[in-house]
């Protein structure tokens, strides 16, 4: 007869069942990932999480490419809005999702600014994700009231230098890309202008047109009607190249300020550890769609430029954005609202 081992108690049935379930789940997960990596992906519905409200550019992009990929892949590609906390709510959801290619993030410029404003962001913007590709960009412009005695970036800088602390600039909110772009200008030129934050673009533009603020960085699409009506003037487009929507407006690069290039960008990311094969498939098909004439035309109607590129290029863009805006935020001592 074998002696009983008093130091080893029999494991309860529930524990054995839990362990078996965990092993089964792990095996199933591994099998799914192996199948996806071997070329059978996708096999079921895919969700594109947009961490902003419906109608925003990131949302529009997701709703343009989703149905086209659904038609190509023969599975539903659904856009789901999860706004809040400057994009953190939706981004965290994707960061915590299974790395199987069925939950992805369509994000925007805020992905490179919010984490440097909020040191307690519930994910790591680099380590928690794998970049897939840049979907689009859109231009921003430095605008001023139509009657302001300035016609260029340098004119505004000289005006601010002659009246330190007396010129105001508007933004759609503290910590927005528009706010940080103006702080970048201030720091680059060494001028003192007072920030007036608003709750959105409309109110900010109204006060710039009324002369209550002397400058603002805004999307070209938001400024265009008022530029055409001569209530606003464009001092510079903040892109490397001139834009088709406003071909007569010079860029910051042309005016000798390449450090002020600030584009709004929109990119697609997957959770960390998503298999290479899935990333490659998404990148390949996304780039093909972005070259199609109907997608290009659709984007142009929204003030967007279909872009594309490699996962590595998007990764470098995000890393560069995080480093750039961290310096601006630290120098200006900006804190999130």
Structure overview:
With 337 residues, the protein is α/β, with parallel strands linked by helices. The chain folds into two domains: 165 residues, D-Maltodextrin-Binding Protein, domain 2 (3-Layer(aba) Sandwich); 121 residues, 3-Layer(aba) Sandwich (D-Maltodextrin-Binding Protein, domain 2), CATH 3.40.190.10. It is 43% helix and 18% strand. It is built from eleven helices and eleven strands. It has a six-stranded mixed β-sheet with strand order 2-1-3-10-4-11, with helices on both faces. Strands 7-6-8-5-9 form a five-stranded mixed β-sheet. Strand 6, helix 6 and strand 7 form a beta-alpha-beta unit. The longest helix is centred in the N-terminal third of the chain and has 28 residues. The chain is globular. The N and C termini lie far apart (73 Å).
């Amino acid at each position: 007869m074998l002696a009983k081992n008093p130091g080893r108690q029999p494991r309860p049935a529930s524990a054995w069942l839990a362990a078996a379930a965990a092993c089964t789940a792990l095996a199933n997960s591994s099998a799914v990932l192996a199948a996806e990596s071997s070329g059978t992906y996708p096999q079921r519905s895919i969700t594109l999480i947009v961490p902003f409200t419906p109608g925003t550019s990131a949302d529009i992009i997701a709703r343009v490419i989703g149905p086209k990929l659904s038609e190509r892949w023969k599975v539903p590609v659904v856009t789901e809005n999860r706004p809040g906390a400057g994009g953190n709510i939706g981004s965290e959801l994707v960061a915590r999702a299974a790395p199987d290619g069925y939950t992805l993030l369509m994000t925007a410029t805020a992905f490179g600014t919010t984490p440097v404003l909020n040191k307690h962001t519930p994910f790591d913007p680099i380590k928690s994700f794998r970049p897939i590709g840049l979907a689009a960009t859109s231009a921003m412009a430095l605008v001023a009231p139509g009657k302001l005695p300035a016609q260029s970036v340098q004119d505004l800088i000289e005006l601010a230098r002659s009246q330190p602390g007396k010129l105001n600039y508007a933004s759609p909110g503290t910590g927005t890309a528009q706010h940080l772009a103006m702080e970048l200008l201030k720091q680059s030129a060494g001028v003192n202008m007072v920030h007036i934050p608003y709750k959105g673009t409309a109110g900010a533009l109204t006060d710039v047109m009324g002369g209550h603020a002397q400058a603002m960085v805004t999307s070209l699409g938001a400024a265009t009607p008022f530029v055409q009506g001569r209530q606003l003037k464009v001092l510079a487009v903040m892109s490397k190249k001139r834009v088709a929507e406003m071909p007569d407006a010079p860029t910051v690069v042309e005016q000798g300020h390449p450090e002020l290039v600030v584009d709004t960008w929109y990119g697609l990311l997957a959770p960390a550890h998503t298999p290479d094969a899935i990333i490659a498939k998404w990148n390949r098909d996304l780039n093909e769609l972005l070259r199609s004439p109907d997608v290009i035309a659709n984007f142009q109607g929204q003030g967007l430029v279909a872009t594309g590129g490699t996962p590595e290029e998007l990764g470098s863009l995000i890393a560069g954005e995080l480093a750039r805006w961290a310096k601006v935020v630290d120098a200006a001592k900006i804190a999130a609202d």
